[in-house]
């Protein structure tokens, strides 16, 4: 079984994906980590040194490799849907879930973050609004399901996703629920 999470930076793809993988007893893979292992430095440093297009090429190669053997829970980078080739690979080989978040919620979560290169600007909330407007249609086009992340905790989101996967017949019913620890 192969599940991919898409959504804006801070939507919870890594945090939710890791716990969803543990819950379903599936390996968890984060494309950002795969890329960092390949380049041997942080994405932020690579962005600064080589630029966004070089990063997007690496991201496309990583997604193509992962889609060739789809298995487990995949957290994609926030910009993975920008390229048509990635949207198609994800849609064709994974059950794709869009973790939708408002720019305001994301800003609250990420305002002290220094790791996300696209948000190191004077007006990060404005930047998140632009990213949301530009990418929301692409996330929707890629995803088989949309889950709103505004109110639920990470543990609740895992429970909601598992319930939806059970209803859709993608995982067997009856997986014990996540403890609400956050
Ligand atoms: N539903 C939520 N409630 C509370 N905190 C959350 C929620 N979702 C994510 N967070 C927190 O927000 C921060 C960003 O989450 P995470 O790193 O999982 O985002 P991401 O979607 O993987 O972002 P990126 O695309 O930049 O990799 C983390 O500190 C995470 O614990
Ligand atoms: O939203 C984006 O374009 C990005 C999100 C991160 O996950 C990384 O993939 C990178 O920082 C780019
Ligand atoms: Mg992440």
Automatic annotation (TrEMBL):
GO terms for biological process: amino acid biosynthetic process; aromatic amino acid family biosynthetic process; chorismate biosynthetic process. It catalyses: shikimate + ATP = 3-phosphoshikimate + ADP + H(+). InterPro entries: P-loop_NTPase, Shikimate/glucono_kinase, Shikimate_kinase/TSH1, Shikimate_kinase_CS. It is an enzyme of class 2 (transferase). CDD domains: SK. It holds the Pfam family SKI. Binds 1 Mg(2+) ion per subunit. GO terms for molecular function: ATP binding; magnesium ion binding; shikimate kinase activity. It is found in: Cytoplasm. Pathway: Metabolic intermediate biosynthesis; chorismate biosynthesis; chorismate from D-erythrose 4-phosphate and phosphoenolpyruvate: step 5/7. Substrate binds at residues 32, 56, 78, 135. Its cofactor is Mg(2+). GO terms for cellular component: cytosol. Its main location: cytoplasm. Signal peptide: none annotated. Its EC number is 2.7.1.71. The keyword Protein biosynthesis does not apply. Keywords: Amino-acid biosynthesis, Aromatic amino acid biosynthesis, ATP-binding, Cytoplasm, Kinase, Magnesium, Metal-binding, Nucleotide-binding, Transferase. Mg(2+) binds at residue 14. Monomer. Belongs to the shikimate kinase family. PANTHER family: SHIKIMATE KINASE, SHIKIMATE KINASE 1, CHLOROPLASTIC. This is Shikimate kinase.
């Amino acid at each position: 079984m192969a599940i991919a999470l898409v959504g804006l930076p801070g939507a919870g793809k890594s945090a939710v994906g890791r716990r969803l993988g543990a819950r379903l007893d599936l390996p968890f893979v984060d494309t950002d980590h795969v890329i960092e292992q390949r380049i041997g430095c942080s994405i932020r440093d690579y962005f600064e040194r080589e630029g966004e297009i070089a990063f997007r090429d690496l991201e496309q190669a990583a997604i193509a490799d992962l889609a060739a053997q789809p298995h487990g829970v995949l957290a994609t980078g926030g910009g993975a849907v920008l390229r048509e080739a990635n949207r198609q690979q994800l849609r064709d080989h994974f059950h794709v879930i869009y973790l939708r978040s408002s720019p305001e919620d994301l800003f609250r979560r990420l305002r002290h973050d220094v790791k996300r290169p696209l948000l190191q600007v004077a007006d990060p909330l404005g930047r998140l609004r632009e990213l949301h407007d530009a990418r929301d249609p692409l996330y929707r086009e890629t995803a088989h399901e949309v889950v709103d992340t505004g109110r639920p905790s990470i543990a609740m989101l895992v429970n909601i996703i598992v319930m939806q996967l059970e209803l859709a017949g993608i995982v067997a019913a009856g997986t014990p629920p996540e403890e609400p620890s956050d």
